[in-house]
Amino acid sequence: MNLRILGILFVGVFLSACFSSQKHKGKQVFYLNLVGGLENLDPAFAKDLSTMWCAHALYNTLIESNEQSQLVPSIAKDWKVSSDGLLYTFHLRNDVYFHPNPLFVNNSRKLTAADVVFSYNRLIDPATASPGAWIFNDRVVPQQPFVAIDDTTFQIRLVRPFRPLLEILTMPYCSIVPQEVVRHWGKDFRNHPCGTGPFRFQYWDEGNVLLFYKNENYWQRDSAGNPLPYIDAVQFSFYDNKATEFLLFLQGRLDFVNGVDGSFKDLVLTRQATLKPEFAQKMVLQKKGYLNTEYLGFNIDTANPVVAASPTQSEPIRKAINYAIDRKKIVTYFKNGMGIPATGGFTPPGIPGFDSVAHYGYQYQPAKALALLAQAGYPNGKGLAPIKIITPDNYADIVNFIAGQLQDVGIKLEVEIMQPAIIKEQMAKNKTPFFRAQWIADYPDAETFLTVFDSRLPSPPNYTRFSNADFDRLYDAAMNENNDSIRLSYYRKMDSMAIQKAPVVPLYYDQRMHFLQKKVNGFRSSPMNIIDLKWVRKE
Fold first, then answer.
1. Residues 329, 322: Cα–Cα separation, whole Å
2. Is 247 helix (H, G, I), strand (E, B) or coil?
3. Cα-based angle 114, 116, 122 (whole degrees, multiple of 5)
């Protein structure tokens, strides 16, 4: 272990003394850390992982997705979609109560369909300024899109079919909130959250500690009839250094860590993404699929003067770049085996619509790369101008490795490091020909990946400015298709159509890497990496 890590260890030991003093005697408390901080406890602003984790603990949605990306009932016990795909009817549970609140008569109130109407209308209200407004904008009818037929019957009316609507309703943005509490607090609802979830808000000292208590009146029970959640409380800390976070975990001060700091990667993991023997005795490593495709993207808008002169406007050159990259080496040596080489399409494994037998992706075949360069008029790269790519610093090692591989076939890559926010701005404004990016599923349906290539959409999500009329027509056909098997076949064909034009270079399909203390049981998470703590027990 180097001096840098030893120094961090010293800091970690000091911090842990403060941390341990906050333990709750005689109670089962789950301890975790939010490295990215936390801006909001209002689910209408659940745009980052920290807020999503908290929202999932405090609130419920009509429907949830499980660990297999399947839809399961939550507040809605069942639902029906009309044959034309324009009317969705939900029947709600009659035993769901909001957390105790002095604004309720007798400090308690049952959730009704009117609360769902309020929550969804609030999401699309410009005054709310929710980043999740896109969920319903231009999809629901302009007048009364959300209707409460009675206290337990709720309807959504669409202007055109959108088959992944049910999957979208699982997003934390769609959490149900009590109207009188939201109206009372206004924008300060962020500090006074009230939901129906397995945990209720107790205390928040911003930047230091956040505490949730068990919701004693939670509606859900396990298969044996026992009430959930099992644990008494959840306590979040806010150390912004991943190395410090992992050291606290090693000391037993945290029960869970999402991922591992680069300084510990080789210390803890083998090249096959397993725990080294000395750590396997101390902790548990959960490895599961993550609906996240890491990729390189080309802006292929030939009408854009900023990118029109780039060599990457040539399809053979884009394909040559795809064939020149050894994705297996990237996963093995830079990810310690945590990931799957993306030799298929843009859609990752673990989501309906993924093509498990795809043959339209790109394997490592440098000879094909050389042949494509010659076809483009640049034999062995001769005469080909340097190509610039922008990347954030934390991916510079992978991109520099790629630059070396491209050099082997005669393609010179110039790597420019930029802040992530600036890169996103450049991508959104179509100002960069070549960039490193990732696409994480918003919901468990392949449409969330294929929308990246819809020519009728702006940037984002269509950062590459890909445009193909046949693709767009097939997208519309998928949205109008009632038969799921046929719709998923359309998805696979769309993925193939996009990849064959090479607007992107899929690198690897990411995986979730969760470290847990041995005393923790029942920890669950979705393929979108939303953690579910209501099943957790501690020995």
1. 14
2. helix
3. 100
Q: Which residues pair with 509 in a beta bridge?
A: 293, 340
Q: Which domains does the chain have, with CATH numbers?
A: 6-240+519-538 (3.40.190.10), 290-512 (3.10.105.10)
Contact yes or no for 465/304 (Cβ under 8 A): yes
Q: How far is CA 416 from the centre of its chain?
A: 26
Report the alpha-carbon distance of residue 147 to residue 516 in Å, rounded. 43
pLDDT band at 264 (very low <50, low <70, confident <90, very high): confident
Q: How many other CB atoms are there within 10 angstroms of residue 80's CB atom? A: 10
Residue 414: CB atoms within 10 A of its CB come to: 11
Segment (H or E) for 196:
none
- Bridge partner residues of 293 (DSSP): 439, 509
Which of 474, 370, 330, 317 lies closest to 343, judged by CA? 330
The pLDDT score that the predictor gives to residue 24 is 64
Share of the chain above pLDDT 70, in %: 95
Structure tokens at 379: 């034999």
Helix 242-250 vs helix 3-20: angle between axes, to the nearest 10 degrees? 70
Question: CA-based angle 479:160:466, to the nearest 5?
Answer: 50
- Secondary structure of residue 210 in the 3-state scheme: strand
Residue 17 burial by CB count (10 A; 0-12/13-18/19+): exposed, middle or buried? exposed
Q: CA nearest 231: which of 18, 539, 514, 526? A: 539
Residue type at 389 in one-letter notation:
I
Inter-residue contact 336 to 264 (CB < 8 Å): no
Rounded distance between C-alpha atoms, residue 510 and residue 61, angstroms: 26
Residues in the chain: 539
Span 402-461, pLDDT tens digits: 999 999 999 999 999 999 999 999 999 999 999 999 999 999 999 999 999 999 999 999
Confidence of residue 68 (pLDDT cuts 50, 70, 90): confident
Rounded Cα distance between 251 and 13, Å, is 8
Cis peptide before 461 (omega within 30 of 0): yes
Pairing, β 531-532 against β 524-525: antiparallel
CB 338 within 8 A of CB 294: no
Q: Give the bridge partners for 287, in sequence order.
A: 513
DSSP state, residue 42: -
Instruction: Give the model's pLDDT for residue 23.
Output: 53
Q: How far apart are the first and last CA of the chain?
A: 31
Copy the structure tokens of residue 202: 């107790």
**Closest of 325, 335, 232, 231 to residue 290, by C-alpha:** 335
Mean pLDDT of all residues in 43-59: 97
| pLDDT reported for residue 21 | 42
pLDDT, greater one: 363 or 69: 363
Provide Rg for the chain, Cα atoms.
24
- Above 90 in pLDDT, residue 398? yes
pLDDT tens digits along 129-163: 999 999 999 999 999 999 999 999 999 999 999 99
User: Dihedral sign, CA of 199, 202, 207, 208?
Assistant: negative
